[in-house]
Specification:
The protein is an alpha/beta fold and about 270 residues long. It contains ten helices and ten strands.
């Protein structure tokens, strides 16, 4: 199995030995199952692949005020971008390595890193149904997916008062189990971008929920993904309003399943095949 040096938001020898954010964990399963590649997690300057996540500006955010961070350029090393995006507007994709853009998350990221290049669009998490088919037996009428940093706040506020057959999903855990819970839902309401992406991947109606706490970035990643989603998305909506509307039979939001052409383009754009 070919080894590929991957950068994730959490890196180092301890990565994967404890519960990590759902999106950060997905690359390992996609690489193994779709491309027979084994990820080796490394620091930014040693990576050869950026995949799922708002990673394109992470090196810039950490080092742009430190001139030494960019004096040690490594143009002989290449860093392939496959489905990654920015977390903020107004940042830059500055890395020691030479970037090769194969695919990006959305049109807004493409305009910043490859405006003239024909690259594939979409988050690689859209490929998950190829390795983990949709669960056909519904596990919950509504699954609520708070961003992992606001999970406890949401549980404290609403955990004891939700309608029957509604479930709050914790994104810190085994990726396949989390994916199974999402794909077996009737409806998704999420302040996590990957909750919304997975809803689209599995054809589940969804609504974008306002976070119950402060998140990193300025919301760029959401607008970036929505730019190539294919249909508008409801929200961001206050959960109290969502709960009130749902109880009155008002269900905003539809699924926007990625086209076969988009899926094939993402698969073909992966360099380490």
């Amino acid at each position: 199995m070919r080894k590929v040096k991957v950068f994730a938001a959490s890196v180092g020898q301890e990565f994967g030995k404890s519960a990590e954010n759902y999106g950060d964990n997905l690359m390992a399963d996609l690489l193994r199952e779709l491309f027979s590649c084994e990820p080796v997690y490394v620091k930014e300057s040693e990576a050869e692949l950026l995949g799922i996540g708002s990673l394109l500006d992470i090196y810039y955010k950490q080092h742009h005020k430190d001139k030494l961070g960019f004096l040690h350029k490594r143009p002989w090393r290449t860093l392939h971008v496959w489905g990654a995006g920015f977390i903020s507007s107004g940042t830059e994709a500055l890395w020691p390595q030479r970037l090769i853009v194969d695919a990006v998350r959305g049109e807004l990221t493409k305009a910043r890193v490859a405006p003239e290049k024909p690259v594939a669009l979409g988050d690689p998490a859209l490929l998950l149904p190829l390795i983990w088919p949709k669960k056909v037996t519904p596990a919950a009428e509504v699954t609520i997916i708070p961003h992992f940093v606001t999970y406890q706040n949401f549980v404290s506020q609403y955990g004891a008062s939700l309608p029957k057959h509604w479930k709050i999903l914790n994104l810190l855990g085994d990726p396949k189990q989390i994916t199974d819970q999402i794909s077996s839902s009737d409806y998704i309401v999420s302040s996590s971008l990957h909750g919304l992406i997975l809803a689209d991947a599995y054809g589940i109606p969804s609504c974008w929920m306002e976070p119950h706490g402060e998140l990193k970035g300025d919301g760029f990643k959401f607008i970036d993904y929505f730019s190539c989603r294919g249909a508008p998305i409801a929200g961001p909506i206050d959960f109290e309003r969502f709960l009130s509307d749902f109880n009155r039979g008002v269900r905003s939001g539809t699924a926007s399943v990625p086209s076969p052409e988009r899926i094939n383009a993402l698969l073909k754009s992966f360099y380490f095949r």
